[in-house]
Amino acid sequence: MPATSSSALPRQVADAYVDALVELDPITGTYLGIPESSGLLPDFSPAGREEVAALGRRTLDLLSAAERLPGAEAETERRCARLLRERLTAELAVHEAGEELRTVSNIHSPAHAVREVFTVTPTATEEDWSAVAERLRAVPRALDGYRASLALGLDRGLYGGPRATATFVGQLTEWIGGGHGWFEEFAAGGPASLRVELDVAARGATEALVSLRDWMREVYAPAVEGAPETVGRERYARWSRYFNGTDLDLDEAYAYGWSEYHRLLAEMRAEAARILPGAGPWEALAHLDEHGEHIEGEQEVRVWLQKLMDEAIDALDGTHFDLADRVRRVESCIAPPGGAAAPYYTAPSEDFSRPGRTWLPTMGETRFPVYDLVSTWYHEGVPGHHLQLAQWVHVADRLSRYQATVGTVSANCEGWALYAERLMDELGFLPDAERRLGYLDAQMMRACRVIVDIGMHLELEIPADSPFHPGERWTPELAQEFFGAHSGRPADFVESELTRYLSMPGQAIGYKLGERAWLLGRENARRAHGDAFDAKAWHMAALSQGSLGLDDLVDELSRL
């Protein structure tokens, strides 16, 4: 029944929204596994952005009518309606503030989305490659639309950050390459029968990158020179709502970040002493970089990570989770060069013909310390992002298509993945000091994210009990120094992370705050059930309810 019908319930309204969104956003269509999307790209111009916003407004009107119908009070309808209203309201707030006119980032922009969608576009048949050629021909128009949005942002005084701009220009230069760019390398994998068509289309895509890079370097960068790198409380609150699905008490969250910092620092010192007596945590990690267990070789690390995830699935399935066969399948991949330093995950297509995949950016390295991999792959793969997002797709018929796919709250997902790291520690999967210190270092990074992301954007004061510049106000420079001093990761990773926080305000705090929500929901459920609490049943019910904002998440988890 179409969502335009007066008898459409919330889940029907939500799923009709997905159908309409895919028409406007073929990148989303490709991630869902829709073949008709493979040759298309979205309109990133101001007009294209407004079309998506208009769809959101119409859907909210339909949702209001749907919520008044008999049957809308059912649990499945109520939960879907709550998510749909919260997400569309947050997205429209971002749009109406003109934030899409200043989207410059080292990880999250239309240009990044255009490039990355090719890594999940089907390439198994000649017909697939014909669609790839069509999509390559669409790259210039998509990037022109993005440039038009940025140009309108300049006209309105809505500026992206200078640091993110400089980083983005460098990334574009790397994608362009020295006469044989990323798109051309990708197209080289196509069949001989389409060689000329693919080569011409790929060169056109590279030329579009050159045009965008030159405009960013010669027009945009000079225009935003001297613009603020941080966003202030009003913009930060808007973005925090978008990424966390709730209106946070930012000062309380900042204080929580510091409390976790102090707790984790004490644990890290204890583990460091087991590795290198008398050494501090980051001295011990530096020691592990040289002398700890490591994997040599790019393909070797990909195979090792695959084995790690396969072993986790075998150990957890039937004991702490109950996994369908298609959810058990996950692939380890090496990320294409030229992106940000952080690993990431892509969810399976709706029919699971494309499995969930983890992606490791190697950043030119060939030696990979194990302490830096294990907990991260419990986060990105199993039992982290993969079990949650693949389970959503698996139970889409019980939820709604919207809840299982595009209706995602970042902090819900990142919170689950950080909870998954902690769960593996609780279950004894980090048996030695080396792997456990790596886990604590990853946890410390997420606590530091809360501190510096909120601190620098709101220009808060560093507490008097801080070992670092007490009483001073945060700046991006202090944030990078602090982050680097409390991380075992290399300098280029730290720099990439700070650029990410500056260009995606409010996103980085969702890991630790989301984990807190998952832990609170589990504790509430455990108290309610007492000795009858079944962790496996709770995990599967929790992973089968779709995404929710943090307040709603605690409420729902506590009921399970």
From TrEMBL:
Q: Which InterPro entries match?
A: DUF885
The opening ranks of the lineage are:
Bacteria, Bacillati, Actinomycetota, Actinomycetes, Kitasatosporales
Which organism's genome codes for this protein? Answer: Streptomyces sanyensis
Tell me which PANTHER family the record gives. Answer: DUF885 DOMAIN-CONTAINING PROTEIN (PTHR33361:SF2), GLR0591 PROTEIN (PTHR33361)
Entry protein name? DUF885 domain-containing protein
